[in-house]
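During the reporting period the student researcher (J.K.) took over the structure-prediction task from the postdoctoral fellow and processed the backlog of single-chain submissions. One of the processed entries is reproduced below for the supervisory committee.
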Amino acid sequence: MSPGIARGRPRVTRREALAALGALALGACASRTGRDVLESDAETARLVDGVIGVDIHSHAAGAGGRRTPTYDLAARMREGRITAVCLQHASDGPVLRRDPQNRVVVTRQPEPGELWRLTQSRLAWFDGIVRDQGLRRALARGDLEAAHRDRAPAIVQTIEGCQFMEGRLERIGEVHSRGVRHLQLVHFLKSELGDNQTEVPTQGGLTPLGRDVIAECNRLGVVVDVAHGTIALVEGAARASRTPLVLSHSNLASRTPDPFSRLISADHGRLVVSTGGLVGIWASPGFMTLSRYVDGVARAAEALGVDHVGLGTDNSGFGQSQAVWADYADFPAVVQLLRRAGFSPADIAKLAGGNYVRVFNQSVPAAA
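J.K. obtained the following structure tokens:
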């Protein structure tokens, strides 16, 4: 923290001081779309080309459950020059619905085998979008850097919630063999792996099976994601994992989070940081504007450290509401706003994707 600029005034952080200067310097070229930015702001365009951009939590283009992709994801990624998206389906999707307030609720218990059949069908969907749109899969250490070098849009194939396991640990190996390199332990449906934020906690955080799943992810080379988990689950995961944790999509609460809130406290986030991991900031419609979203990224970086924050939009994961940043063609606008917030090019490279690249490379093995 820097001292206040005058006696009697509030203390001002270094980032806030730089942001004021940055807003003056960049105000004339602030643009609405990614294309506008690339055409009108040469410095931001050069920076976009130099960073490895990664959205660490996304259901874009119908990945969550559509039979065919709803748009050309690869084309939008190329237009915005973003390198990779952690693309996923929710393994408990068939038993979830949105209520009239657009909140996710569990409506029933799944039939035996139902969620495993769903996951098999979604794995085939991922095979199709990779084949038909010319996407790469990031599978091994260095793949994200190679995708950036080659200007080849890539996905990190992900599953949100391990309910597809149905208690069978060997299924982690089966989805790994199909390209999955990032697994979120819990989602909305009550899980045998531990407690989630939106249900009454009854398991004391992480269960023995949850520890076994983390050990299997560490062994195979899969990023461990603790989003939706209670703080007690994250405590257990931090002790259990040999690799850094990711909490892929949430926001820091301004006060103690309400019961069953999906927001996290700074202490919750610091547990993830203690493993060397990162927290992805959620592009919730509650932010209202892209500028406010980037302010949320900046607040998280101030609280957790610039080495431990990333972008986790939940693109297409809000039901009828769109994520604030819903089109990867607008990645340059995000980078421009990070500049306006006062971040240096080196720090923008970390926040935009570099922090995730580091965790990915620490979690997965080198190519055989």
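The committee noted the following: The first strand starts at residue 54 and ends at 58.
J.K. will present the remaining backlog at the next meeting.
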